[in-house]
Amino acid sequence: MVDVCLNFRTSSKMFTITFIILVGISSIFVEAQRPDIVDEILPEVKQKNQIGYLNCTVVNKGSESVVQWSKVETVNGGNPILLSEDDKIVYQGNTGINEDSGLRKYDMQSRVNGRRVTYMLVIRYLAEEDAGDYLCTIRIQGVQWPEWPKKIGKLTVQIAPQIQPSINSIYEKDIGSSLQLTCESHGNPYPNITWKREDGQELPMGGFQSRGATLNLTDIQRNDRGNYICVADNNVKPPDSFKVEVIVFFQPSCRPVQSTVGQAQNRRFNAKLECIVAGYPQPSMKWMKETENGKLIEIDDDDKYDITKQFSSQLQNDEFWYTLLVKNVQAKDYTNYHCVGTNKYGDGEITIALFETMECQGSNCPSPGGAGAGTQIQASVFTVLLFGLASLLVL
Are 327 and 269 in contact (CB under 8 A)? Predict the structure, then answer.
C-alpha cells in the first residue's frame, strides 16, 4: 500500500514538471512568433527640398498585425499623426501631387526578405516642418497599445541660413559716439555669424573678423565709416549676408590727385588739376586762385576754366572727385590753386601748384610722329623729286 502511494506521488510530480515544461516551451514558441521591430531606425539628415527615407524592419508579421508610420507632433500635445498602414498612405493632409515632378509628398515602399519585411517611408519636398521624430508601430489585434512594438526614427532637415532684418541698413553717427550692430540668423544647424568690413580693412576693435551676432563700435572716428557685412554660414549652401553702411558726420578733408601739375604756355595746351573732397554731410566745393599779391579769388566755370565733378567706384560714398581744367595755359596762370570743401562741421583745403614746362604735358599732347610730322616728310620728298626732275631737264 505504501509503495502504491509513493508511486502515485512520484508520477504526479513528474506530470506536473512535464506540464510546466510544456507550457514554458509553448510560451517561448508563441513569444518567438510575435511580430517585432528588429534593427534600429537609422536617423536621416537631408537638406531642404530633398527626399527623406526612414526604414522600419519587421519580423514575424502576420495577417492580424498592421505596421504603421506616424509623425510625432508636439504642437497638438504629442499625439502622433498617422501617415501609413502597411504599404498604403492613409494621411489625408498635404498629399497633393507636385506639379513639376508628378510625385506625392508621402509614399510607401516595402521589400520582403524571408520573415523580415522593411517598410520605407518616403518624404519628398522636405520642408522645415517635416523635421522631427517618426514612430514606427506594429498594431497587433487583441493587444493593448502600450504593448505594441514601437521604435522612433529621427529626421533632420538642414536649412540654409537666413538673416532676419532686425537692424537698419544705414546708420548716421557723430564722431565719438557708439553703435551696436546685432545680426540675427535662422537655419539648421544654427549658423555661425561673423562680421567684417567690405573693403577688407581691419575692424575698429582690431582683427579682420569678429565672431558672434553682435558687433560693438565705440568712440567712432571718421575712419570707421564704410560698409560692414554680417555673414551667416552653417555649411548648407548658400550662406547669407547683410550689409550695413555706417556714415560718420565729419569736417571736410581734401587730397590732391597730383600736388603739382606742369604745362607749357602759349600753345593752346590745357592743364588739369584734380582734387578729392571727403566729408559728411556732402561738402560744398570751390576752386580758389592765388593772385600775385597773395590774395585768393574764387574761380568761376567760364570760357577760361572748366569745373567738373567726376564719379569713381574706387571712392567711398562720402568722397567726391573734382576737376579744374585751365584752358590755353598762359604765363599768368602759373600759381597755386586751392581746393576747398565746406560743410556745417568746418572746412578742408589743399593746394595744387601749376608750373611751367618746356614741352606739352598730358595725354592730349600731339605726338612727335603725328599727322604734322607726316605732312612735313611728304613735302620734303616732293621737293627732292622736283630738284631731281629739274636736273634732268638741264642735262
Answer: no
